[in-house]
């Protein structure tokens, strides 16, 4: 499968593993690259910029193919040293960066000056157009189904993707609600140049999270997520568990962020992935877990997705075009 995205980023398949907090680590990222996709480390998973340097070098020990680093820019009282993380990415010669969260403009010039290509994640058409105007190289357009922060517009992929395709000029990939070849085929039909998957890649052999989390994702249904922070206008989709339900209940009852800070602390979420205690804290999961039912290797997963998408396009859909049943030949 050759798309504008595969040509621009020099990858074999139009399949991307997003840089998820606590999940985007060396083993997973390298496995995706070896399978012909594009994988991203998560910069802020690493406690310091020097730890990120070590993780980049660890990834290079596992693959000689290209990969990227996600730099999520979050408005916070005590921001991490973004400039230092950025400089490590540049110094280590990483060819691709995925930005998310706030406007990436202050980082673009630095990355582009050394030839690094930047994908920016957006949850609306208007933000995608703005990022395109800023000069990003490609976009990840995230539908309401996605894990993490889906924005406040609540537009699902079936509408968001063709709406984006109508106005965007640069390549973009579809994110949210995609886990198999059906999703890839649909995304391409709707105008995207590839797909970005998070929850699906969490549930792979090379994902360095506890097996309890993978088993929970594979057993869960599409309704087993919660939308937290709605009242704070900072909506996030997370796995349904005792903690996320408590957060939702407290906010509906009028609580403010200080009242729930202890429940949503990042350190508690990291414990879920490390210990397998599914109620230790908040952890990310998308609605797409309703169609995830196994824990394959990244190689098996990507090969299956591409094969199934090709069969849908060249097989099932192709047979629907032609003479109606019973027509004279």
SSE layout:
Blueprint: H1 4-9, E1 15-17, H2 26-34, E2 38-42, H3 49-62, E3 68-73, H4 82-91, E4 96-101, H5 105-112, E5 117-122, H6 125-134, E6 138-142, H7 157-167, E7 172-175, H8 181-189, E8 195-197, H9 199-202, H10 211-219, E9 225-228, E10 236-239, H11 242-252, H12 257-264, H13 266-275, H14 298-316
Parallel strand pairs: 1-2, 1-8, 2-3, 3-4, 4-5, 5-6, 6-7, 7-8
Antiparallel strand pairs: 9-10
Helix pairs in contact: 2-3, 3-4, 8-14, 11-12
The CATH topology annotation of the largest domain reads as TIM Barrel
Percent helix? 40-55%
Q: What percentage of the residues does DSSP assign to strands (E)?
A: 5-15%
Helix count, DSSP H or I runs of 4 or more residues: 14
Count all strands and give the number: 10
The termini sit apart by 33 Å
Unreliable spans are none
Order of helices and strands: HEHEHEHEHEHEHEHEHHEEHHHH
Overall SS class: alpha/beta
Number of domains: 2
CA-based shape:
globular
């Amino acid at each position: 499968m050759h798309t504008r995205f595969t040509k621009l980023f020099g990858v074999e398949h139009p399949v991307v593993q997003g840089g998820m907090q606590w999940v985007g680590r060396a083993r997973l990222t390298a496995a995706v690259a070896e399978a012909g996709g594009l994988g991203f480390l998560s910069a802020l998973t690493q406690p310091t910029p020097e730890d990120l340097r070590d993780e980049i070098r660890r990834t290079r020990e596992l693959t000689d193919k290209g990969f990227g680093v996600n730099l999520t820019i979050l408005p916070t009282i005590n921001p991490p040293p973004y400039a230092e993380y950025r400089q490590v990415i540049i110094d280590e010669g990483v060819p691709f960066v995925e930005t998310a969260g706030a406007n990436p403009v202050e980082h673009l010039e630095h990355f582009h000056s050394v030839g690094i290509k930047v994908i920016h994640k957006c949850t609306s058409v208007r933000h995608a157009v703005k990022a395109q105007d800023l000069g990003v190289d490609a976009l990840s357009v995230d539908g309401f189904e996605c894990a993490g922060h889906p924005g406040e517009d609540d537009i699902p992929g079936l509408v968001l993707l063709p709406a984006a395709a109508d106005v965007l000029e640069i390549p973009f990939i579809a994110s949210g609600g995609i886990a198999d070849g059906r999703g890839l085929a649909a995304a391409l039909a709707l105008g995207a140049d590839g797909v970005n998957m998070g929850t699906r890649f969490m549930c792979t052999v090379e994902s360095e999270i506890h097996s309890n989390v993978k088993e929970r994702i594979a057993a869960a249904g599409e309704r087993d997520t919660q939308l937290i922070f709605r009242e704070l206008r900072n909506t996030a989709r997370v796995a349904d568990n005792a903690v996320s339900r408590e957060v939702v209940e407290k906010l509906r009852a009028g609580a403010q962020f200080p009242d729930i800070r202890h429940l949503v602390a990042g350190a508690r979420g990291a414990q879920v992935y490390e210990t397998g205690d599914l109620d230790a804290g908040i952890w990310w999961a998308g609605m797409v877990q309703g169609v995830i039912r196994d824990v394959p290797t990244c190689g098996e997963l990507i090969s299956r997705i591409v094969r199934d998408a090709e069969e849908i396009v060249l097989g099932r859909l192709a047979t629907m075009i032609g003479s109606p049943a019973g027509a004279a030949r």
